[in-house]
Amino acid sequence: MKPLLDVLVILDALEKEGSFAAASAKLFKTPSALSYTIHRLESDLNIQLLDRSGHRARFTPSGQMLLEKGREVLHIARELEIRAVKLQQGWENSLRLAVDSTFPVALLSPPIAAFYQQQPLTRLHFTLNPSLLDWRPLTDGQADLLLGALGEPPPLSGYDYLPLGELELLLVVAPQYPLARHRAPLSWRTLRRYRAVATGEGGALTQRSGDPDGV
């Protein structure tokens, strides 16, 4: 496989630079070394990659196909090298992010774009969760990060967290619901006595708090 990768690199440089002399200068090798590497692969596979009958070598159909498909292989090989280096430096191949359904998803676009500018090879996988009140996606191993979790992490969990800001929720109460009899502003102690349902951008409904006996 190594000689094939070497030939792919040579063919790519030869097509871009236009001659063995220019390709050899780019690859810091002698023209004879490049020619020998190609000839050895031609002999091993019993194919002809270059037509050397004219003043300048030209790609045969087999050589042109190997050049085009080989560039895809070279791209993958270089990406693998970068991934290996990034992993050694502590970057992850992918990150799973659980997002609370009430979190404003539009706010994610700028940080996602900034992240991919710095680390384009790490894939971000998002899941929209009805409730992150109990941090369950993280504790169950279903996510690596939570966005929009309410409250602090479970005791003794060792999880760290940073505040993202404040989210204003509009409280809507039906006239016949017992909570409607209380005068505004409503205290948190009063609200905790009643069951609350939250809906976010995704339309998911989630029980947030409240004593079941208070309904």
UniProtKB/TrEMBL annotation:
Residues 3-60 form the HTH lysR-type domain. InterPro entries: LysR_HTH_N, LysR_subst-bd, WH-like_DNA-bd_sf, WH_DNA-bd_sf. One of its GO terms (molecular function) is transcription cis-regulatory region binding. Keywords: DNA-binding, Transcription, Transcription regulation. Gene3D superfamilies: 3.40.190.290, Winged helix-like DNA-binding domain superfamily/Winged helix DNA-binding domain. Belongs to the LysR transcriptional regulatory family. This is Transcriptional regulator yeeY.
